[in-house]
Amino acid sequence: MTPAIIAEKLCKTYGRGNISVKALDQVSLTLNTGETAALLGPSGAGKSTLLTMLGLIRQPDSGKIVIGNETVFNDGSRTDIRTFRRKNIGFVFQKANLLPFLNALDNVRLAMEINDVSGREAKQRAAELLEQFGLGDRLRFMPKELSGGQQQRVAIARALANRPRILLADEPTAALDSAMGRKVMELLRDAARNHNAGVLVVTHDHRAMDVFDRIWVMEDGKIERQK
Amino acid sequence: MMNLALRDIRYNLGRFCLTTAGISLLLIVVMGMGGIYRGLIQEATLIIDRSGADIWVVQRDTKGPFAEVSKIPRNMEYRIAAVTGVRSAEPFISHAVQRDHRGRVLRLTIQGLPDSGAWLPIIRGRALQAGHYEMLADRSAKLPLGTRLKLGKDTYQVVGITDRMNSPSGDSMVFVSLNDALAIQNDTPPEALRGERNARLRRFDRMAYGSTSVDHRETLVSESEKPAALPGQQISAVLVKVRPGFDPAEVLRKLRTLPDISAYTSDDERQIMLSGFVARSRRQLLLFRTILITVSTVVMTLIIYTLTLDKLHDIAMLKLIGARNRVIVGMILQQALLIGVLAFGIARFFGQWVYPYFPRRVVLVPFDLWLLFGIVIGISVLASVAGVMKAMRTDAGEVLS
Suppose B383 and one of A56, A165, B258, B300 were both cysteines; which one would form an S-S bond, judging by CB atoms 3.0 to 4.6 Å apart? Predict the structure, then answer.
C-alpha cells in the first residue's frame, strides 16, 4: 500500500490576538490507498477544518500536505488547486449537494466532463457507476425525486467519477437512518477498496465503526489517539 | 460538454419565461419608440415626397406650409405658371379641423387635390369623381365608406379609403377637391357676412352724402360680392414642377426674385420639417429610448444577479468539483444572452400586432431593428457582469455552509 495522503504538522488559527482559536495544532496523519479512516471527535475539535485543509478548500497557516506523490502545500506555497482537486479529490457531504437542475446520471457525468472525459464515455461510465450503487433504475430521476439515501449514493458516485486518489466525506450519514447510514459507510469502504482510493470520513456515527480500517480521534485541534 | 445554462433554464422554466416576458414588454416599448420616430419622419415628409413637386412657393419669409402658417393669394398659381421653365403650378391647401363625430373627437387634415387623387393608396372605394362634396378619408380616421360629414356649410361623403396617409402632426388626412378645400378653409359665418355688408352700406352712405351719382347699393350687397374686410381666397402654397430641360436651380432663382413669396426646393422643405418640428420630437423620443434601455439594463442586471445568487451554492459545488471559470461564466452569460435574444424575438413578433393600435404610426426599419438587437446583446452581456463577478468571488468552501 502506498500513501494516498500525508499531512505533516498542519496548523490553522482563526481570529487574531486574544480572541484567536487554534483550530489545528500540529496535526499529522498518513492515509494509504484502499484504506478507510474515520475522524471522530466532539464539535469544535477541528475535524471539518482538517477535512477542508486536506481537500484544498481552505489553506493551512503552515505544514505540509502530500497527495499521491505530489506536494500540494508546503508552508504557504501550493499548486493549481482547482485542477489538482478535479483530478485527485472527491467530496461527499452531509447534504448530497447535487445540482438540482441535472438528473442523477448528468450529475455524475458532469464531474467527468469537467475533467475532459468525452460526453459518450462519461455517460457510459456514469451509468455504470450508478448501477454499482444500485441506482440503475433511477438514472433519469431529478434529485428532488430521489430519497435522501439515493441522493447520497449519487453524491458518492459523483465523488468517485474521476477515480480520485482520496475521497473526503464530512458527516455523510448524518441525515440518514441507521440502516441507510451503515449502507453508505459500506459503500465508502467498498469504494476505497475497489477504486484504490484513500477514504477519510468525518463522523459522529458510532454505529458503523467496524467498517473503518483506522479511527482517529480529535480534540482541541489535535489528534489525541489512533485506533 | 453538456449545456448547464439550458438545463438550468429547463429546470426553472416558469421563472425564465416570466423574466423573458417582462424584458420583452420593455423591448416592445423601446422598439415602438424607434418606430414612432421613423413614423414621424415618414408622416412629416409624406406629402412632400408624394406631391412630386420640384419647388414649393410659400408666403414671403415663412417656412410654410407645414412648419408654420403660410397664406398666399389664390391667383398666385397663375403668376408662378407664367415664369419661364415652370411646367405646372398647382395650389396646395392643407389645414387641420377638429369635429365631434358620433361621440368622438375627430381630428382631420383637409387636403385639397388638384386631381381625382387616383395616385393615392386607395384600399377601398374609388377616387374622386364629382367636383364637389366627395372626400377620400384615411383608414385611421375610422370613417367608413358612405359616411357623411359636415365641414363648413356643406356635407361631404366618403367615397374612398386611403392607407397610411397622416399629416405631420399625426392627424388623419382627408382629401377633397381644391375648391371644396378652399370652401372649407374660407367658411365664413352668415353673421360675419351680414355685419360686413351693413358696414359697407354705412361707409357708402357717408361717402355718398349729397352725391348725385348712380346708386351702387345693390352691387355692394349682392351675393356675388365678397366682403372686403373678410379674408379672400387664400391658399397655403403653390407646388411647382419644372419643365424638362430646365435647370430647377435657375427656376428657383427666378421665383425668388418675386417680392411677395419665398421658394424652396423639395429637399429644403424636407429639411425644414426634419430640423424643426421633427427634431424636437426626435430628441424627446431618443431620451425616452435611452431611459428605457437603461431601465432594461438595470432590470436585466438585477434579474441575472438574483438568478446567480440563487445558484451560488451550485456554483460553489461546481468549483469544488473542479469546474473551470469559463464553465461558470458561460452558464451565466448564456442565460443572459438567451433572455435578451428571446425577449427581442418576442417583442418583434408581438410588436407587429400591438403597434397598429398605437395612436401614432410605428415604422420598423431593418437598420433600427439590427441596432436594437446589438444593444440588447450589449445589455445582456453588461447585465451578466455583476452576476459573473459574484460567481467568481464565490468560494468552493461555501458548499459547507
Answer: B300
